[in-house]
């Protein structure tokens, strides 16, 4: 990991115990989007106990965990300028939660992965943001200035609405590149810090 990022990701969970939790909900056909989801969880666990930050595949949703989580991070590959069909099915499956306002007041964030540098990832982030707004959620963006535009740089795609990553034609162990994965870890750490900072004093007592 980039040393400047590593030095800023010092664990606070032992110093500041918290009950907040994060669910990173994703769909991944080939493992690349899953790798990004796991990197976000890795970053969140710099601040939270392992059991309070989980990556959840849309095919194996732990609804009890999702419903109690304080922050839901949604992630999808980009297919034809949209989330995948599988991720859209997950979105549609939450319609009763939408109707009953079950997620109202929760925090939300998102990430999108595609093969192209642009790949219409912005359209997916906007789609997920609108979905979160329909649920009455509070949005957290990616407030990280780009360190450059090389494969090793942080936020190299200059995205602020959410996290954008690029995966080439290769195994998920090799792509997305180090800069995108480091940015995902930074994002997870930032998300955890944000919900810890804003948790109610009596949260889950």
Descriptive notes:
Strands 1, 2, 3, 4, 5 and 6 form a six-stranded parallel sheet that branches. The chain is built from seven helices and six strands, in the order αβαβαβααβαββα. The protein is α/β, with parallel strands linked by helices. Strand 4, helix 6 and strand 5 form a beta-alpha-beta unit.
Number of strands: 6
Shape: globular
Return the structural class: alpha/beta
The helicity comes to 25-40%
Q: Beta-sheet strand percentage?
A: 15-25%
Rounded radius of gyration (Å): 16 Å
Order of helices and strands: HEHEHEHHEHEEH
Question: Low-confidence segments, ≥5 residues, pLDDT <50?
Answer: none
What does the secondary structure layout of this molecule look like, with pairings?
Layout: H1 3-8, E1 22-27, H2 32-44, E2 53-57, H3 63-68, E3 71-77, H4 85-93, H5 95-99, E4 107-114, H6 121-134, E5 138-139, E6 163-166, H7 178-198
Parallel strand pairs: 1-2, 1-3, 3-4, 4-5, 4-6
Helix pairs in contact: 2-7
List keywords for this structure.
36% helix; 205 residues; 16% strand; 6 strands
Describe what is shown at a glance:
The protein has 205 residues and is of the alpha/beta class.
């Amino acid at each position: 990991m980039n040393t400047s990022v590593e030095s800023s990701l010092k664990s606070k969970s032992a110093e500041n115990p918290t009950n907040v939790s994060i669910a990173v909900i994703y769909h991944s056909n080939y493992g690349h989007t899953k790798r990004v989801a796991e990197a976000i969880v890795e970053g969140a666990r710099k601040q939270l106990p392992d059991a309070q930050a989980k990556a959840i595949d849309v095919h194996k949703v732990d609804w009890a965990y999702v419903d109690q989580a304080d922050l839901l991070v949604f992630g999808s590959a980009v297919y034809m300028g949209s989330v995948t069909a599988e991720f859209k099915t997950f979105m549609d499956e939450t319609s009763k939660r939408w109707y009953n306002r079950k997620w109202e007041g929760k925090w939300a964030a998102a990430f999108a992965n595609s093969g192209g540098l642009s790949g219409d990832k912005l359209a997916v982030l906007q789609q997920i943001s609108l979905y979160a707004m329909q649920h009455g959620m509070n949005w957290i963006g990616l407030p990280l200035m780009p360190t450059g535009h090389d494969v090793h740089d942080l936020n190299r795609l200059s995205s602020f609405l959410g996290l954008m990553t690029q995966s080439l034609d290769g195994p998920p162990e090799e792509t997305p590149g180090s800069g995108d994965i480091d940015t995902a870890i930074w994002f997870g750490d930032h998300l955890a810090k944000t919900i810890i900072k804003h948790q109610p004093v009596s949260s889950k007592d």
